[in-house]
Amino acid sequence: SKQLGLRVAEHIEPLIVLMNVGTDAGKHNSELSYVTCGSLVKLLNTRHNVRLHSHDVKYGSGSGQQSVTGVENADDSNSYWQIRGKPNRPCKRGVAIKCGEAIRITHMKTGRNLHSHRFNSPLSNNQEVSAFGESGEGDDLDVWAVQCDNDHWERDEAVRFKHVGTDVYLSVTGEQYGHPIRGQREVHGMKSANQNNWWRSMEGVFIQPSQEPLRHDEL
Amino acid sequence: MKLPIISPFLTCRRDFYQILGVTKSASIRDIKKAYRKLALQLHPDRNQDDPKAQDKFADLGAAYEVLSDEEKRKQYDAYGEDGLKEGHHGSHNDIFSSFFGDFGFMFGGNRQQQDRNIPRGNDIILDLEVTLEEVYSGNFVEVVRNKPIAREAPGKRKCNCRQEMRTTQLGPGRFQMTQEMVCDECPNVKLVNEERTLEVEIEQGVRDEMEYPFIGEGEPHIDGEPGDLRFRIKVLKHPVFERRGDDLYTNVTISLVEALVGFKMEIVHLDGHKVHIERDKVTKPGARMWKKGEGLPNFDNINIRGSLIITFDVEFPQTQLDEQQKEGIRSLLKQGSVQKVYNGLQGY
């Protein structure tokens, strides 16, 4: 049975999921604890406590593309990203993302995809991570693989994002920008898997799988 | 002496199926759809002249709460309302706002027409991909919204900060005006993550770019109201059918033999029902067949449907003909040589 109520989590720690995670009348799957295809999420870097963020501000060096940063505040809609399938291979809405699956991470506000390429990042000289494309379509360097230990990407577990084209991990090491984005951290790609590349899903809109629409098969 | 008319709304043993207007075998989707439609109609804010509006609305909430829950529905079907083991949990407000958002009951006028001085948090727009099957039959999408909510915290904080002009006197007849940042003191707030389920309906006939707003489910604003969450429909391309308005287009390849002598076939439609097609005359390449009522339901009136338009193309045999077959065909078809030469492009 399903209770349609509010559940409060006082910490940023694992959220208490709705109590009655049972099945509905009919064959209804429950993917409440997973990040699913089509969901909108904010991603928190667990080491530096900042959320993945983008905005209409371009890098002053490197590729000159739209910049991607880490921000401290939790209430900015520019920190929402949509989880989508690879180019020309849409994932099925509501289905949990598998560990190892290749996805695109699309910035909600600007429609540009999380992207990396062989340019240097401005503050730390790691690999630049930018937001690229138009209306959700960019190129093959928009693809990232979700790395985690279980079968599927769990909402309350930290995962890594490995760039499929260049094999770097999405990371934050703490360098801060000045004006006009004072305090925001640099987000870049780095070769090694370490404490700096763990990310957790936080706020968001998590889509559940739907039943198939009604069929009227003739006898 | 008149017999009292027993309305489904006013007795203690309520007929929840009748209240929702669904049959006893209604699916969970039918129940959600019925609730959503009636909730808009019966909301007390919309029926301020009806003294029974509150009761009817409460009954609607109770009906949905029981029939949408597998366990409770079983108990109700077997023992009636009296047989329900527990009392009703969850206020109707929770149920209502899972379909419409927190401020969804502010009918009659946009939120924008409210006090413009109240700052608002950002809106969130989620592109919701839907299949043509869902556009045809309708569907519900359940989502879990996890959002930051401003909660009271100990202490005070600065709020409503603004620039003000201060005038200071430097001497007789000499004044200086300076700008100063002035803030009020407000109770402290902190952001806490809370979670709730929302129900998004994919209505039959829905069109690309249509939006379903959930008021107040967007980003919070520390000094004001939260913004909205809007689901924007994106209809996916279909491998068999192409949508144009309420009409559906499809292509069928038939063999040269079928084109000449006729054929029978079935097209499987979006909900699995079969469309029967029969020809006993010659079918030319590019010929179109119009099947009325086999298109999509119209969003504004689902009893009206568009048409299914089928365009035929012809596949010629792959093998070459020998001289005997060629003679046979010449005598069978009795069509003289045509060989008309003309400009087929005409500027295209």
CATH topology of the largest domain in chain B, which one?
HSP40/DNAj peptide-binding domain
Rounded mean pLDDT of chain A is: 86
Number of strands of chain A: 13
Give the CATH H-level superfamily of the largest domain in chain B.
Answer: Urease metallochaperone UreE, N-terminal domain
SSE series of chain B: HHHHHEHEEEEEEHEEEEH
Which blocks of ≥5 consecutive residues of chain B have pLDDT under 50? Answer: none
Q: What best-fitting shape of chain A do the alpha-carbon axes yield?
A: globular
* Main sheet overview of chain B: 4 strands, mixed
User: If classified by CATH, what would the architecture of the largest domain in chain B be?
Assistant: Sandwich
Number of domains of chain A: 1
Structural class of chain B: alpha+beta
Question: What percent of the residues of chain B sit in helical stretches (DSSP H or I)?
Answer: 10-25%
Strand content of chain B: 25-35%
Provide the CATH topology of chain A. Trefoil (Acidic Fibroblast Growth Factor, subunit A)
Largest interface: A-B, 52 and 60 residues
Please count the helical segments of chain A. 0
Distance between the termini of chain A: 33 Å
Radius of gyration of chain A: 18 Å
Residue stretches of chain A low in confidence (pLDDT < 50, at least 5 long) are 1-29
Report strand order across the widest sheet of chain B.
6-7-11-10
Organism (chain B): Labrus bergylta
GO molecular function (chain B): misfolded protein binding; unfolded protein binding
GO biological process, one term (chain B): protein folding
Domain J (chain B): 15-80
